[in-house]
Design goal:
434 Repressor (Amino-terminal Domain); about 100 residues; mainly alpha; elongated
Length: about 100
Amino acid sequence: MSKINESTVGSSFDDFLKEEGLYEEVQAIAIKRVIAWQITQEMEKQAITKKEMAARMKTSRSQLDRLLDPNNDNVKLATLGRAARAVGRSLRLELA
């Protein structure tokens, strides 16, 4: 039977990620996934095809696919902003 480390009982998952040095990376991935999901939802709501969305953004379909891929966290803020504007929304960033 393994012994429980008393110092970690009751700590949060965020605390664990910080201790492991993974917090910022995980946060960035989570934020990008949420934004990609929101853009996809707005495209579906407005019946915007990927071809039309790429044209609105003045980009390629493959670039749009990378943007919408929840596992690809290497997307520029300018690209996210163009995507938001293409569906009539704005991108808002803030320090918390």
